[in-house]
Specification:
Strand 1 and strand 2 form a beta hairpin. The chain has two domains: 35 residues; 78 residues, Histidine-containing Protein, Chain: A, CATH 3.30.1340. It has 114 residues and is of the alpha/beta class. Helix content is 50%, strand content 16%.
Amino acid sequence: MRFLMALVLVFGLSGCTALMVGGGASGGGYQVDRDERSKSHIAADAALSTSIMSQYAAHTSLSTFNIGVRTTMSAVTLSGTVDSYAAREIAEQLAIDTNGVKAVNNQISVRETE
């Protein structure tokens, strides 16, 4: 019984390692082996997402918000919640102005304040 548990543990952990390493390398939450895009497209999309998120982190109006950025074939989808329409527009414009971005789908919500 102990041998069986050890065997399951060894194979289970080795699978977790492969998942973590492979999943981390693909960026944007995509798994390379299940994605129809080439590895070079996945890498380019991950680089675009990272560039946009870096701009958000450096921008005083956006750095406090958790804005999601997902890129597929150079088309960016933005998600999350901000507290003003101005912040939503800034986030969209920064994404549009990022070199290599072909389209932006802005799904950012504006939180109603009382």
